[in-house]
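Record 1 of the preview.
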Amino acid sequence: MGIGDGTDSLDEAADVFMAARPQLFGIAYRVLGSATEAEDVLQEAWLRWQHTDRAVVREPKAFLATVTARLALNVAQSARVRRESYVGPWLPEPVDTRADPQLGAERAEALDTAVLFLLERLNPVERAAYVLREAFDYPYRQIADMLETSETNTRQLVSRARRHLASERRKPVDATEHRRLMEVFLAAAQTGDLAVLENILAEDVVSYTDGNGLRGASKFPVVGLAHVSRYLAAFAPRFWPEKEIHWVEANGGPAVLVTAGDTPVVLLTLDISERGVERAMWVMNPEKLAPYVASLGGGTTS
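->
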């Protein structure tokens, strides 16, 4: 079966691609932190798969994973330059993980919003190596081939990424405690209850708002317990009235979608450790909210 064998050949190629697609999207999304960019990568991977002499490809799934990883790495390297002009903090584009809790991976690694945010601080090759190893469990030798580097260097890349995450993020609480503290945080933020906020925020908590210049979105992170608690309290009377709260799932964890009528306003996720809320992450950029809200299809609870 080679290129030019007709419709049957292309249909079979499409079947192979669609079977691999969840994993391919999972790779691209984790490397890029953007569902939109990941879809663009998959479109290019499909075009390349169509024009490949598939008769000589012994392992189609491995071939497609390699193509996807290399394309995603190229996009990640150019995205670093583009994001330098982004207005305010950049947060990962949220994805709905209800249908696929691990998003095509062997393990649900590098999917949490806080982890993706921290991985953004790595260089793209470190990030790609970490994703392929920790989320998809590829052998180091195969990752080296995919990234066109040596096995020794691949091990070093993954090790550096692990150390970075370990130094930047404390162990998160379990799912039950996370939901409980998120409910407490949300109630206190809505009422501007300083005492409760100061009790549940970590001393060095940071609040990030991703609005890309949107009016009302803070252009700088708010840092520290005193500043964040007062910021949220001052924010409360202007922001929360006439808003609706919807509990949703994003990136494998609980999230809160805030709407004004039918208009999505913000998606809130929290990074919570035993110390309390470590990071509050508010995605307000309409270009990131729109595809996420469209994917929910009514799957929200008030």
